[in-house]
C-alpha cells in the first residue's frame, strides 16, 4: 500500500487511547489481534497495533528518568507502534529515530507521534548490520520473542554498547532473553490486553547492556 493508504488503514482499524502503564502517551490501538492480523495479510502479527508489555515498561522508565535521553540522539529498534520512541521524545531527546521493517508500523509511528505532539523520524528496513546511526541511546522493547530474532538482534545491541551507547531493553521476562548479558534497572507489573496475552498483567523488566 502507498503511505496514505497505510495511514488510512491504521486509522480505520484502531482507536486512539492512553497506554495503561504510560497514560501520558496516546496510541492508535486495536481491540482484537486476530481480526486485524487477517486484514493485514502478513506473516507476522500487527505488532504496531498494541502496547506490548516490554515497550510499556521501557517507556515508563524513560519518562520517570528523562535524564537518560534528554538532549540525546536516540534510536528505537523494532519500534512497532512507536511507544518507546514517543516516550523518549517526550522525555526531551534531541532527535529520535524509530526503525521497523513493517510498513504499517511506520505509518502508525507517524500517526502516534503526531497525536502526542512530538517529532519522531521513521526509518524503514533491516538496520541490524548498521550502527544505529551513531545514536547516543539505543532502545529496544519486546525484541526477544523468539530464538532467531534474538540471535540477530544481540550483535547489533552489543556493537552499540561497545562504542559507548547507552542500550536499554524492555522485556516481559521471555525465555529467549540471554541470562547474564544485561543489568536489571527496573521491574513493573504491566496491564496487557487479555485477548493478546491470555492474562491481564505481565511482569516486565528494563535492562541495561
From TrEMBL:
Gene Ontology BP term (one): methylation
InterPro entries: Ribosomal_L11_MeTrfase_PrmA, SAM-dependent_MTases_sf
Keywords: Methyltransferase, Transferase
Pfam families reported for this sequence: PrmA
GO molecular function list: protein-lysine N-methyltransferase activity
Stored PANTHER family: ELECTRON TRANSFER FLAVOPROTEIN BETA SUBUNIT LYSINE METHYLTRANSFERASE
Name assigned to this protein: Predicted nicotinamide N-methyase
Lineage, top ranks: Bacteria, Bacillati, Actinomycetota, Actinomycetes, Pseudonocardiales
Amino acid at each position: 500500500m502507498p503511505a496514505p493508504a497505510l495511514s488510512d488503514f491504521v486509522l480505520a482499524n484502531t482507536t486512539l487511547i492512553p497506554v495503561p502503564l504510560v497514560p501520558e502517551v496516546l496510541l492508535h490501538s486495536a481491540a482484537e489481534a486476530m481480526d486485524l492480523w487477517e486484514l493485514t495479510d502478513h506473516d507476522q502479527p500487527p505488532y504496531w497495533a498494541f502496547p506490548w508489555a516490554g515497550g510499556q515498561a521501557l517507556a515508563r522508565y524513560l519518562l520517570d528518568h528523562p535524564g537518560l535521553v534528554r538532549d540525546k540522539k536516540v534510536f528505537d529498534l523494532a519500534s512497532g507502534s512507536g511507544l518507546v520512541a514517543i516516550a523518549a521524545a517526550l522525555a526531551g531527546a534531541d532527535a529520535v529515530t524509530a526503525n521497523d521493517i513493517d510498513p504499517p508500523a511506520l505509518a502508525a509511528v507517524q500517526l502516534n507521534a503526531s497525536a502526542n505532539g512530538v517529532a519522531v523520524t521513521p526509518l524503514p528496513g533491516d538496520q541490524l548490520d548498521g550502527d544505529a546511526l551513531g545514536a547516543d541511546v539505543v532502545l529496544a522493547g519486546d525484541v526477544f520473542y523468539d530464538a532467531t530474532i534474538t540471535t540477530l538482534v544481540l550483535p547489533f545491541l552489543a556493537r552499540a554498547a561497545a562504542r559507548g551507547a547507552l542500550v536499554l531493553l524492555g522485556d516481559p521476562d521471555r525465555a529467549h532473553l540471554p541470562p547474564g548479558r544485561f543489568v536489571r534497572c527496573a521491574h513493573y507489573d504491566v496491564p496487557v490486553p487479555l485477548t493478546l496475552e491470555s492474562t491481564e498483567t505481565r511482569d516486565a523488566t528494563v535492562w541495561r547492556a
